[in-house]
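Action item from last week, closing it out:
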Amino acid sequence: MAAVIDLERLQRVLELQCSCCLQLFAEPVRLAGCGHSFCRGCIVRYCADRPRAPCPLCRRGFELQHLRPNRELAALLSLIPRELRERLETQEQPEPCGAAACDDRSPAGRPGEQEEEIWESSKQQKITAETIHLLRKDLNKTKEYTSQIKSQIIKDFCCMKEYVERQERNTLIFIEQEQKAAQQKIEETIHQLTEIKAQPSDLSERQRCKGSPSTINKITLDEKLNVVKSAVEDLKRKLEILLLENYAHQLPPVQPSDSYQEPSVSTSSPESAHPEPTISSQFSQWADDVTLDPTRVHERLALTDHNRRVMVSSHLTAYQPSPKRFCISQVMCSQGFSAGCHYWEVITKDSDGWAVGVAHEMIGKRDKLGRTEHSWCVEWLGPKKQLSAWHKNQEMVLHKDKPLKVGVFLELQKKTVSFYSIADKEMLLHTFEISTSDPLYPAFWLYTLERNGSLTISQPNRR
């Protein structure tokens, strides 16, 4: 009896029963986090194959792999005599309940696990509500930020439009003033000539002194107007290049109306001051609508105007990967021809170094136009002021001026390709005999990537 009393005293000092099964510990283990002890079998059943579970007593999380044997408690329990242990275990014990219950013999299953699931569900709902709140808050901030950006962009564009309109007014006023000044000088000259009409000797003397006033005034006016025109065209081109280089992939494409025709863009060089040829082409009946191929263009060349214009860009253009992409500053068209007659025109006045020609589809991505057996071209080198024809890496110098527009006439029945300068009249530059029966594609080469330049495919004027 004394041993039983000692056991009861010991239980009051130390907890010798598992809080799950309410029996003396069997193979006691300690949780690494909180230090609470349970029967190994009870805690394993409680976890029910969960990798992580809360402590049945304090709800602190633990993992089965972090269980540690409670050797001190096991040694203490081993000192209890067997008869006392059996008598204690056979005494009527209250049913385990709440989160501590884990006896798999209970018909209600594992209430602790159900409570855990309810707690986890409540926690998940709370996290979801907080996430929704944060997302709505971010959405409001995004709307507010977008509104601020739109307002700023509208303000910036208004300022630019006001500036451009102001410069337009000032430029038109300047031109009008120059026109009035020239007109006044011409009228004064006419008046002077009328006064001295009856005095031929005086007229000869005055002409020697003053020269031809009407000619001088006309030349002066032309020079001033050409300077203004070149400055406006240069500003327009710089704005276009800036937008293309920095915002080509951010801005949506603008679809022009049917009646809209994009004005030509030229540089401020003297050669580009000439107007575009407007004659009707004798080859217009064979004209083809050719477009540049985005998969066969160098990464430093940008395509615009519905893939009818190629221009040098100071940045790499984000094209899709293509095994056929040129490694040099060349581009080919998407359309190839294997029979019949075909004609297209290319505006060349906006570039100081270019080649226009045709090439076999299998031209290598490092092959230069006109330097292979199956490519033919005419080229212009601005620094040399030289026009040449190239085939199989052989050059034929063409002693002609730089064409502002080049027409290409492909006659596959005769196996020839001819190049024309389109100016006041169509002038033949050179004709090649073609030595292949494979399809040929229009191809172009912009020689330098250090300067801004462009080539534009244009529709010929029909007769």
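Closing note: Residues 341 and 411 are 5 Å apart (CA to CA).
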